[in-house]
Amino acid sequence: QVQLQESGPGLVKPSETLSLTCTVSGGSIGDYYWSWIRQPPGKGLEWIGYFYHNDITAYNPSLNSRVAIPVDTSQNQFSLILRSVTAADSAVYFCARSRIGDPPALHVWGQGIMISVSS
Amino acid sequence: SSELTQPPSVSASPGQTARITCSGDALSRHFTYWYQQKPGRAPMLVIFKDTERPSGIPERFSGSSSGTTVTLTISGVQAEDEADYYCHSTDLSGAWVFGGGTKLTVL
């Protein structure tokens, strides 16, 4: 059974770049959509972006200029790069995999990682 | 509009039916997905493509759609169903969007 695990720094300073990694175990990246979603403390979910086959990507328009989702299929990992972070980027960040053939169906989730932006 | 609107809270007694709505301009054109999230946990998909239930999700969870409003129905609510519920769909620009979430309280 596929499992996802987020990893990253935990604490990032304002204006710096946040880099998170999602490691996929029990399966390969293959023909699935892979997404990042975040949730500020006490608030709702926010879609960040997704990739598919390393050549199709889409990002939340509100983050588009600051975000990228690179993939390393050899390591069975994909990442989230978020530039110029502010306190508003403090959140639990989740990676997720969609059901095959149904991109918005986020069927498998990582446990999430809390990221705080503070000096 | 890129917004999906959900009621902030819904309550139901055990055994009753709980209905959570989600409204948005693009919902008549795109499927909606529903997630259950319990405190400190990752969300879990409970309904996909408006009405389909993933394997392992109890039959008491069902979804329906009418125009620009979709509804998650939990028939025979149980204490373990107390959670936050989020709808998820695609807006008119093609971007994915989540509703603000609804807290279901089991009385």
List its traits.
heterodimer, A: 119 residues, mainly beta, 7-stranded mixed beta sheet, 5-stranded antiparallel beta sheet, 55% strand, B: 107 residues, 6-stranded mixed beta sheet, 3-stranded antiparallel beta sheet, 9 strands, 0% helix
The greatest interface between two protein chains, and residues involved on each side, is:
A-B, 21 and 24 residues
Which of globular, elongated, flat, extended, rod-shaped describes the shape of chain A? globular
In terms of DSSP E residues, the strand content of chain B is: 35-45%
> H/E series of chain A, N to C?
EEEEEEEEEEEE
How is the main sheet of chain A built? 7 strands, mixed
What average pLDDT do the residues of chain A reach?
95
Shape of chain B: globular
Strand fraction of chain A: over 45%
Helical fraction of chain B: under 10%
**Radius of gyration from the alpha-carbon trace of chain A, in angstroms:** 13 Å
Low-confidence stretches of chain A: none
* H/E element order of chain B: EEEEEEEEE
How is the secondary structure organized here?
The complex is a heterodimer of chains A (119) and B (107).
Chain A: E1 3-7, E2 11-12, E3 18-25, E4 33-39, E5 46-52, E6 56-59, E7 67-68, E8 71-72, E9 77-82, E10 91-99, E11 102-109, E12 113-117
Parallel strand pairs in A: 2-12
Antiparallel strand pairs in A: 1-3, 3-9, 4-5, 4-10, 5-6, 7-9, 8-9, 10-11, 10-12
Chain B: E1 9-12, E2 18-23, E3 33-37, E4 44-47, E5 61-66, E6 69-74, E7 83-90, E8 96-98, E9 102-106
Parallel strand pairs in B: 1-9
Antiparallel strand pairs in B: 2-6, 3-4, 3-7, 5-6, 7-8, 7-9
